[in-house]
Amino acid sequence: MASTPRRTPSPATVLLVVAFGVFVAADDLTVVSTMLRQIIFDLEIPLPDGLNQAAWIVNAYLIAYVVVMPFIGRLSDILGRRAVYVGSLILFLVGSIWVPLAPDLNSFIVGRVLTALGGGAMVPVAMAVIGDVYPREKRASALGALGAIDTAGWVWGPLYGALLIRFLSWQWQFYLNIPLSLIGIAAAWWALRDLPEPKTRERIDWLGTAVLTISLISLNIALLSSGDVQAAGGFAQLQTDSSPTNTGLLYAIVAISFIIFLGIEYYLGQRAQHPASVTPSPSHPFTLSLPPPLIDLSLFRRRNFSPAILINFLVGSILIIAMVNVPLLINILEFDVETAALTSGYLLSGMTGAMAIMAWIGGQLTERLSYRPVTAVGLLFSAVGMGLMGWLWLVDTPYLNMAGHLVVLGIGFGLVIAPIGTAVINAAPEDQRGIASSLVIVLRLMGMSVGLSGLTAWGLYRFEILRKLIDLPDLPLSDPTYQQALADGLTNVTVSVLTETFLISAGIALLALLVAFWLKRD
Q1: Rounded distance, CA 321 to CA 521, Å?
Q2: CA distances from 173 to 235, 305, 348 (A)
Q3: Cβ distance 56 to 109 under 8 Å?
């Protein structure tokens, strides 16, 4: 009796499986927003003295999430997507078991780092998997669907956390991750079994990985240290205390280590392109065997790669301004903290909901129209949305109008996701799709960090100037009329500063629109 041939999972099935893991990781990224206060209380962190320690509940996760991506992306090129994706889920599972059992803050942070390493690895590997299983002409819609699911996880996280705090406890977020991770591991082991294996088992560029890790960690700590309490990606991002001297030292480490990294990658790239130059000879019988570079710098010379990466960086820098400054503005306008939180959540859900829907639509449009027109329309919507927020948002602007402007902005952000990700993956050779996918995510996250730090510094500078121009009555400081005038003046100044950042973001979106004209058809 002839055996039944083994059925190969369809590309749609593979997409569904990797998207499941991406959704769980995206939820874990933002869920802490509504749990942070209870976590701080349960870990017995004294406030405000322990605020600097509590900052690492969030910051350690963010740093690990960013730092792991380049290495894991390249590792998936070398070892294969299946092994690395399943390994990432296992790491995420270990962290999810560790966190609720943590007896103190340090142990808790170790567990969060483990979940960040696993969760941060899943997104670029999932993108590379889509590049492996979908033909070029079908990748955009698949990447658009993945982007929509990733964004939906961001949106769901804070709401999910609020429900758990209301009816159970924060530990249940991690308890529930355990069965979800096990399902994801089993499904991925089955669905990814027929993915193409790497043609050669190359060595890993450990030196380049170490130097880049130092650079990314230093940059993230320096950027996170500049500013006060902020909110990013839907969750509070507490800032560590840092003197200007320490911050300057960190930036110096960033610059030096990044230059060294570029030198290492250029050298390894040249040796890989000219292997004959390292062939042993009678005069040089011993030749050091060198690995290929972690990031092949020739990628940036490939068609569409550099403009797509640059656009992603610029989009990240304005996306974070919306996600941070909208809640700040609402907190200025609303005296009740709970009302402000709910209003901010409703307004931002309009933006992120539009992003999720338009990410999928953007993928469909990219397959029909190519990268440039879809990206350009998305950036134009982003510029218009930010422009409307900058020009029309005042102290008395109705929330319904604000929601409409944020939907316009979300349409723009969503349209950009699929064409940019597809352009990068299509530009990369088959054996470098993992590292290319990692660069898509890393550049967006670094854009978010740089944009947040830069526009926060600008906002503080403008606030100091404008508050000196507040027109106050000639009355004693304790007079109620004087106090009310001062409060109204500070509110107007703060709103003015925040809307200025929206106008600057509109200009950045127009700059990205100019870069989009360098995108070409394959």
Answers
A1: 31
A2: 15, 38, 23
A3: yes
Place of tokens 């569904």: 16
- Rounded to whole angstroms, how far apart are CA atoms 62 and 100? 19
- On whether the CB atoms of residues 482 and 252 are closer than 8 A, the answer is no
For 205, phi and psi rounded to 5 degrees? -80, 80
What's the pLDDT tens digit per position in 384-425?
999 998 888 887 888 889 889 999 999 999 999 889 888 888
Give me the domains of the chain, ranges plus CATH numbers.
10-201 (1.20.1250.20), 298-471+481-522 (1.20.1250.20)
Residues 6+ apart with CB under 8 A from 271: 277, 278, 290
pTM here is 0.80
C-alpha dihedral (119, 124, 128, 129), degrees to nearest 10: 20
- 260-293 pLDDT tens trace: 988 888 888 777 666 554 455 555 554 556 777 7
Residues paired with residue 237 on neighbouring β-strands, in sequence order: 230
Tokens of 48: 């405000």
Would you call the peptide bond into 307 cis, given omega within 30 degrees of 0 as the criterion?
Answer: no
Reported residue count of the chain is 522
d(Cα 396, Cα 402) in Å, to the nearest integer? 11
Q: Look up residue 435 and give its DSSP letter.
A: H
> Residue 265: which of 207, 218, 222, 305 has the closest Cα?
207
